[in-house]
Amino acid sequence: MDNFTYINSSLLISHRPLNSSQTDKTVYAICAHIPAGLFFYLSLGFLNMFLGIPGNVIVLWLIQKKRRESSTSDIFIAHLSVLDVCFCLIFPLEFASIVYLTTSTNWYVLRFFYGVKDFSPLFLSCISLDRYLAVMHPIIFTKLKDTWHRPVCIGVTWFVILVCSAGKCVGTFPDFDRVFTVMILTVFVFMVFCNISILRALRQSAPGRDKRHPIKKKACKMVLIILMIVVFNYLPPVVLYPFQDYFSPDIFKCYIQYIVFGFMDLSSVIQPILYLSQGKLPACCCSGVENDTERANADSPANA
User: Fold this and answer.
1) Do 264 and 46 form a contact (C-beta atoms < 8 A)?
2) Which spans in 66-120 are helix H?
3) DSSP for residue 50
4) How many CB atoms lie within 10 A of CB 239?
5) I want to staple 215 with a disulfide (CB 3.0 to 4.6 A). Which of 41, 149, 255, 288 is the partner?
6) Full-model pTM
């Protein structure tokens, strides 16, 4: 076993030992010979803290303020914002643990919050499913719109997140990296499928018309942006993780993983900025369909 027995990105690749500290060096000292990746990661961490926290708090305030006018996906967005705020708040402890601290106690707390961030894509998949039903299956969507399905889905999602985070914290799951890999691959494929399906449906012109409906045209552009963000945030770990053995331990654990997961964690900033700049976060394309279902259905048989 090498001396890289810690983890300080949102993806668990290896654990810092739970029983003792195997090195009196800080993470920064271990990676001092190639610090570029670490500097990049910490810079994005500061960005997450100073922009992600106020951004997500504003999103929560807007959703609460416009509760009666909100779309069905806003409830998932609100819980995702709570999760992102919690993750952004741990950066001071993470920074101290990387640069100054050599104790192992602080890594219990960090591992728990890393687990919370690890499974945040579950809420994104809920948003994608909600949008998919609104666009592709509006009849089913209308029947489920005011039922108990969403609160139950949220409760189950939080249960999975907290249980897995607690297991990651105490080291209950020896193969947690494999659990995460299966989860992130499954969720990634699911989100891409949903968004591509929505995009294709919204890009279809109505029969006998030269231009798409303005609502659909706006929604199509927004879904394309969301799809690009999903790929930007989650494709790098999906692609690089299976090939980590092709890199030297120093390069992978001090350089590549910090750059890759720095971009992944940047979703805590990108999503609230998208919500605030467009009026709705990932739910915007669905809200257009929800608020004007009859017109959207008249425009395209794909929405019927």
Assistant:
1) no
2) 74-89, 91-99, 105-118
3) I
4) 10
5) 288
6) 0.77
For the chain, how many residues are written?
A: 304
Retrieve residue 226's tokens: 């969301």
User: What are the CA-CA distances from residue 54 to residues 39, 51, 84, 86 (Å)?
Assistant: 23, 6, 11, 12
Spans of all domains in the chain: 27-303
Tokens encoding 219? 């929604």
Write out pLDDT tens, residues 171-225: 766 666 677 778 878 888 888 898 888 888 877 655 544 455 555 555 566 666 6
Q: Name the fold adopted by 27-303.
A: Rhopdopsin 7-helix transmembrane proteins (1.20.1070)
Question: Which one, of 291, 196, 182, lies nearest residue 238 by Cα?
Answer: 182
Provide the 3-class DSSP secondary structure of residue 290: helix
From residue 166, give the alpha-carbon distance in Å to each of 22, 116, 159, 173: 23, 9, 11, 10
